[in-house]
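Before relying on records like the one below, remember that each one covers exactly one chain. Contacts with other chains, cofactors or solvent are not represented anywhere in the record.
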Amino acid sequence: MSLRISARFARRELRGGLHGFRIFLACLALGVAAIAGVGSVRAAIEKGLIEQGAVLLGGDAQVEFTYRFATDEERDWLDDVSATLSEVTDFRSMVVIDRAGDTERGLTQVKSVDDAYPLLGEVVLDPPMPISAALEGRGAVMAPALADRLGLVVGDNFRLGTQGFTLSAILMREPDDAGDGFGLGPRTIVRTAALEGSGLLAPGSLFDTEYRMTLPSGADLDTLSQEAKDQFESTGLKWRDSRNGAPRIARFVEQLGSFLVLIGLSGLAVGGVGVSAAVRAYLAKKTSVIATLRTLGATRAIIFQTYFLQIGALSLLGIVIGLALGGVVPIVFGPLIGAALPIPAVFTLHPGPLAEAALYGILTALVFTLWPLARAEEVRAATLMRDALEGAQRLPAGRYLAATLALLAVLVGTAMVFSGSAMLTLWTAGGILAALVVLTLAAGLIRALARRFTRAVRGRPIWRWALSAVGGPGESAGAVVVSLGLGLSVLAAVGQIDGNLRSAISRDLPDIAPSYFFVDIQRDQMPGYLDRLENDSAVSRVDSAPMLRGIVSKINGENAADVAGDHWVVRGDRGITYAATPDSRTTVIAGEWWPEDYTGPPQISFAAEEAEELGLSLGDTLTLNILGRDITATITSFREVNFSNAGIGFVMTLNPSALQGAPHSFISTVYAEEAAEAQILRDLADSFPNITAIRVRDAIDRVSEMLAGISDAVRWGAGASLLTGFLVLIGAAAAGENARTYEAAVLKTLGASRRQILSSFALRSALLGASAGLISLGAGIAGGWAVMHFVMETDFVIVWGSAIGVIVGGILATLLAGLAFAWRPLARRPASVLRARE
């Protein structure tokens, strides 16, 4: 019965329209739209990867080998199960150009192919021609970025290793590019047969071989995958099929999308503050209505249900608006987004992300509206007649407090499930909650300080009026500081993390990183290689190590993936080396290194940090598949390995007798003065054409480009939080317009000029903005430090440019919002305002 009466009252209240709820709807809609939009774009990419999985992979299925080609037995099986088969190799090399006695070089990611390539899709060239024609003889095609950098045009000649090639066309698009993952250099494509004698595919060289297959109609991928595993698992064969054509990209998109959704939740939390403030302001205006209902016998339940239903209906409207924006905007801008993406995306309505965003919106609305609604229920009618909600208890009844905490737990749990990263979600939720608590306490402190300093500014009316307004009971200092401060906190944290990452990569890393990585150095080339470098005064250090790659297939006799899950060490092939003795920079922290002349069963020294993550102990065994051969080694020591300085670092080091018989090459890092780097490269490349040089500064630039794109995406997410905070400011300013109108009328009557009153309004806004900026800066710096210290495990320094920008942004935002609603109060005539007040 009471619910039916409440529903009737709520329906009548809704007849008044949306007055007072525009900011409420905007905050909720914007937060939901941000989450729905990010989710929709992620779903579009994931669907594109699924639908175009075969094209991205280059076939219906693929098997891959490291450092070798398929054996006759493996090739026979591949021929039997496939309708067509294509062999592709992938490796790094140097493009060498000779011009009038000068030599120029550039790093490239080479793809060598056979006549069957590509099995699916089309290679787009400029000038247009079939890829088979472009690769005839010693023809080659090259990505435009590399050709432009080296000044190559169609018809020019260049070398790969010792082999000469002619540029036949510019490579505009390769259908399987997204499936190949990250490469340090732009692409060059040649025929595999044309590389004979180049020294680039010699035994032990670093290359991957991929066999792409189109399968007969009706072929069962699960059956074929299991058959390949059963027959060739011990040879190091890696299977992939069109159901996951670009796994690295899919994983990256999923992780980045989940992180952006968490950023979106921060924005929704900011919007929640605005929602809560709007509900409080609305209930304050309904004082007489609620008092009348209570006087006529309405119970607490009826009062609560009436406004709960009304706010619930408006919340659903805001969520629907947000879902419409988040679902439709990606479709409208789909062509532009798709053109900017290097991978396919299918932009349509995706119900999953919309349902996720709707759930977030409902839970957020409940969490932030339950408290003010519950407080209104507890207020006596007489108190409402006098002073709106100020007479209500500071905390609601215990049942509502318990319900709020339960809803908050459900919200965090939902985010943990959808994000797929429990720890990241908990850290994000903890950071948001901590920021809300700190900002709420800070808002109270600011009001207290304003009241205290009001007495200290006698004789300065503008300052006195501003401080009195900030510290007064009717001023919206809480909403301003909390909403703007939370949005700025997210932006400040993102700015500090981004600045520190960029600093670590572009400034600090080159100071401790080597000048060059050299790979594919053959064993018989090592004496001449070292002789050139060790006699150069500009070279301060040379580190070299034998290099093989292998897969950790078993841990203590059990499948490695079952034991270690998705840990990066067992996810793919890893670099492996051998050493008779530890060098001077190796620190063994547990166990013992093998004797220098040890020739017994294989032993392994494992990186200590990764061993702890995998749960490994001394005496455990690892089975490594290297070049198709299984080697089972016992862990006899753990050692510290530093991967943060871009030097040589191996998770696994074996005793020499375990690996020396396998074909392999060497890698080396060279630390030299920057002025000498070019000459070192020329001398080594001329003497050893097969060697590939990776300039660390170029690799850093490549990583920085990727980081810039990620940072931009994160900033947009943080910007949505800040925009929501600005909307809350507008709502707070609009809600206080009547109070400022009365204040202006009184001050005019007492002789204050319009300029003085406007200055007072601007000063109070600037004070609140500066306070919110300073507090949020502290929260952002703390969050940035935590991420850099605990997650990135690197040093943290305050990025002052970003820090100052946050404070200035806070001041400008409150000034704009405050002054936007200051002109109308100033324009009102005092007589009409004061007469109406009576």
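The chain has a mean pLDDT of 82.
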